[in-house]
Amino acid sequence: MKILSFGEIIWDVYEDKKCIGGAPFNFAAHCARLGAESYLLSAAGDDELGVEALKIARGFGIKDDYIQTVNGSPTGRCLVTLDKNKVPNYDIVKDSAYDYIQFDKNIENNNFDVFCFETLIQRSENNVETIKEILKKVKFKEIFCDLNIRKPFYNEKSIRLCLENASIVKISSEELGCVMNTVFGSEITDCADASKLISSSYKNIKLIIITLGSDGAYVYVSQNKKEYYREGEKVRVVSTVGAGDSFSAAFVTEYLSGGNIESALDKAVKLSAYVVSHADAVPV
Q1: What torsion, rounded to 10 degrees, do the Cα atoms 190, 191, 192, 195 define?
Q2: What is the DSSP string of 6-49?
């Protein structure tokens, strides 16, 4: 399976350490570890963090053919603090290298199975145009969007661009109310009711995945209106940073390699539980 992820490379900077991150980077790393041919279309700065990011990407098995260097712009950083429940709060530094990702014509003939993007990377108009060019010029079997809503870097247009193009969409339970209110002007937060409204409005979406934190995950199949649920795993939570990215990677690689929804959910819940029991988003 050949996967192209589009989006940010960000260093998560804590009080006492820094870790490589960014949802597309984490997703690409987990996909590579799960056996996929995983490419990342992104950008880093011509600084020490950029050099180190490329080295780590290669170490994770990410194909760096499309990771660009932006001279004069710093590699992305996000200042992270954890609350008493180990839930992260993010202060994402503006005007970073990944705000200037350019279309690479070499991807046109690479026969990718999956294209993945989200809302945060759309905070720059440059990247919105790059996404639209990719969608126009490159054919993919599936398009996966993990909305990855981060205040204040989202709006109705960025959410709609995901919903209008995705064949599989993932939303966290924390994001669901925001999506329903922003796009539909609705207060619905029930998984089934929200999924039915989304699927009736966006016929391109085949699967809607709603992650429920420690309670597990829910999947709605638009074609036959079937619902699936997998309860969460009981683990000691160290950090939830990257949990959703590992879930996405496990689900996508399992399901699109021929697995069924139950096996994909099982694998995704187990991997994300493993990740939250560690400090790093991509545990060694």
Answers
A1: 120
A2: E---EEEE-SS-EEEE-HHHHHHHHHHHTT-EEEEEEEEESSHH
Q: How many CB atoms lie within 10 A of CB 71?
A: 8
Structure confidence at residue 125 (pLDDT): 97
pTM (2 d.p.):
0.93
Separation CA 15–CA 51 (nearest Å)? 22
Instruction: Supply φ then ψ for residue 119, to 5 degrees.
Output: -90, -35
Q: Report the length, in residues, of the chain.
A: 284
Q: How far is CA 203 from the centre of its chain?
A: 21
- Name 102's Cβ contacts closer than 8 Å, sequence gap at least 6: 43, 68, 126, 130
Q: Is the model's pLDDT at 88 over the cut of 80? A: no
CA distance 43 to 97: 6
**Distance between CA atoms of residues 150 and 157, nearest Å:** 14
Q: What is the pLDDT of residues 147-178, one digit of tens each?
A: 999 888 999 999 999 999 999 999 999 999 99
Distance (Å, whole) CA 216 – CA 247: 10
Taking CA 62 as the corner, what is the angle to CA 58 and CA 68, rounded to the nearest 5 degrees?
A: 80
Q: What is the CA radius of gyration of the chain?
A: 17
Residue 120 · residue 151 · CB < 8 Å: no
